[in-house]
């Protein structure tokens, strides 16, 4: 027994040390590869431009730091009621998203763009740069098209981009499909043994971005989503001031959702409700107190909209 005890006392520290070393290696690997995992379209070269339909326009933007981004515009076939800015998922072809939305939305101009490093766009993605790019695309398309209102639509990772845009610019509303409260929380649930909050570089805190915004938001979730667990979507919904629609597509996964007619019906209903609640042209606003905006914008590295696009003064009352 004494000999066995000595063996255990010798072996246990060695085993514990090996376990700790393996844990550290895995954690370091996840930290090192997180950009590839979060921005899979760039990290694993999964995204290419599949092409535009007849009548669509290829867009090109050059950012302040000299990166060329590619996008596309489909003009409304009926009199336009505004601009729909669509933000794709983390491994998604933005051209496909334009064709997908344009196949049934005919009374809004629709714009999509490839994130940095995705498909034909240059650069390397990160949260701060993608948010700045989204704001730039918004501002340039508003200047060009002069829409009555702007609605953001975000899909999966794109819901995080749309949420950040809503914090930075006045929108008429947002439609979030399979959204999360934060990428950090999704990663933390998937890797509970990793100190995610200490390591993550791109947390996409949609809960913080949408907190306190008097913004009409429609949410569409998949009740069998294994990529964004429904609990993460519900926690975001609980944080919204003005959810105008919450729709769960039963039996749908993160991907199969888009094949379901219930999804299109929910998206169309969300648009209808947002447009019904939209403020008159040039008075639309997501209300946010100045001190809250200042704190968020300092963290995100963003600026207020130009004076002619600022929220109505009543929004700061």
TrEMBL record:
<keyword id="KW-0812">Transmembrane</keyword>
<feature type="transmembrane region" description="Helical">
    <location>
        <begin position="7"/>
        <end position="32"/>
    </location>
</feature>
<dbReference type="GO" id="GO:0016787">
    <property type="term" value="F:hydrolase activity"/>
</dbReference>
<keyword id="KW-0472">Membrane</keyword>
<protein>
    <submittedName>
        <fullName>Alpha/beta hydrolase</fullName>
    </submittedName>
</protein>
<dbReference type="InterPro" id="IPR022742">
    <property type="entry name" value="Hydrolase_4"/>
</dbReference>
<keyword id="KW-0378">Hydrolase</keyword>
<dbReference type="Pfam" id="PF12146">
    <property type="entry name" value="Hydrolase_4"/>
</dbReference>
<feature type="domain" description="Serine aminopeptidase S33">
    <location>
        <begin position="79"/>
        <end position="184"/>
    </location>
</feature>
<dbReference type="InterPro" id="IPR029058">
    <property type="entry name" value="AB_hydrolase_fold"/>
</dbReference>
<keyword id="KW-1133">Transmembrane helix</keyword>
